[in-house]
Design goal:
alpha/beta; Metallo-beta-lactamase, Chain A; seven-stranded mixed beta sheet; five-stranded mixed beta sheet
Length: 293
């Protein structure tokens, strides 16, 4: 098989510097971490990449920035002689999809949720840093899309691609390699203090919380989880993330019931115990609180 709301958090910008500043991609190296079986995590700059290799196909989950494509291809070639057959996008943000055009031109079939593809067909803005993401040409667009879920049977794995509705964006997908028990969560689960929620593009705090609970239901204590950004994680990490966000949401809802102003909510710091109130966190709180007012 060949072929706005300014939802920004300073801790996220520290954890994901490529979203906040220009980079010298010549200095970026791609690291490879074995996850389980023939599945690996590649890290360079941008979202974590999942890689599945085997007799049937070479599959990438996300593909980072276009200037890194050759380095990513070299990392793949070190593990398999088979070029990339499929790229599954977990959502449309450029730090996860900017390599689409290069891999599409090289013969890979790109797969994504229908909403993610729709956003890739037009000029859009990522609200974290108000960066304009230009429309992709035909080579960079997903050729296969889905609405609820889809399934691959490749590399001795049942691979479920599952839509997580209105979570990080309106087009998120988790990719679960059932037989190897590995989950790629995309940016619905990251290792920062609180997640970036792209509310102007369909993301919601309720959706992020629901997504975490759905993914926890898919997994068990042996599951290895590739987050959108950060180190490999476990189901315990995912459940702790879910519990933290539920506490924060409950605090925001309580403020809404009492009719508090955004200024009162910021002063109360609903992120207490998890993060200090600073300029970035204040914008996050204001944007999240707007969902419940």
């Amino acid at each position: 098989m060949r072929g706005s709301l300014g939802v920004v958090l300073l801790v996220v910008l520290l954890a994901v510097p490529q979203l906040g500043s220009a980079q010298n991609f010549d200095e970026i190296q791609i690291s490879t971490t074995p996850v389980a079986g023939s599945i690996y995590m590649l890290q360079g700059s941008g979202g974590n990449i999942g890689l599945s290799i085997g007799d049937d196909a070479t599959i990438l989950v996300d593909d980072q920035f276009a200037p890194l494509t050759q380095k990513i291809q070299a990392a793949v070639a070190a593990l398999t002689g088979t070029p990339v057959d499929f790229v599954i996008n977990t959502h449309w943000h450029y730090d996860h999809t900017d390599g689409n055009t290069n891999f599409g031109r090289a013969g890979a079939i790109i797969v994504a949720h229908e909403n993610a593809r729709t956003r890739m067909t037009r000029t859009d803005t990522v609200s974290l840093n108000n960066r304009v993401q230009e429309a992709y040409g035909p080579d960079g667009l997903p050729k296969i899309t889905f609405y609820q879920s889809m399934r691959f049977h490749l590399n001795d794995n049942v691979i479920d691609v599952i839509h997580l509705r209105n979570a990080h964006t309106d087009g998120d997908a988790a990719v679960y390699f059932r037989d190897t028990n590995v989950l790629h969560a995309g940016d619905t689960f990251t290792r920062g203090a609180v997640p970036f929620i792209d509310q102007p593009n369909g993301g919601t705090l309720d959706g992020i919380i629901d997504a975490a609970w759905i993914m926890a239901g898919l997994t068990d204590d042996q599951t290895r989880i590739i987050p959108g950004h950060g180190a490999l994680a476990s189901r315990g990490d995912l459940l702790a993330y879910h519990a933290k966000l539920v506490v924060i949401r409950d605090r925001l809802r309580d403020h809404a019931v009492q009719g508090h102003t955004p200024e009162q909510v910021v002063a109360a710091n609903p992120l207490r115990d998890y993060a200090e109130m600073n300029a970035g966190n204040e914008r996050w709180v204001r944007a999240a609180y707007a969902e419940f007012r």
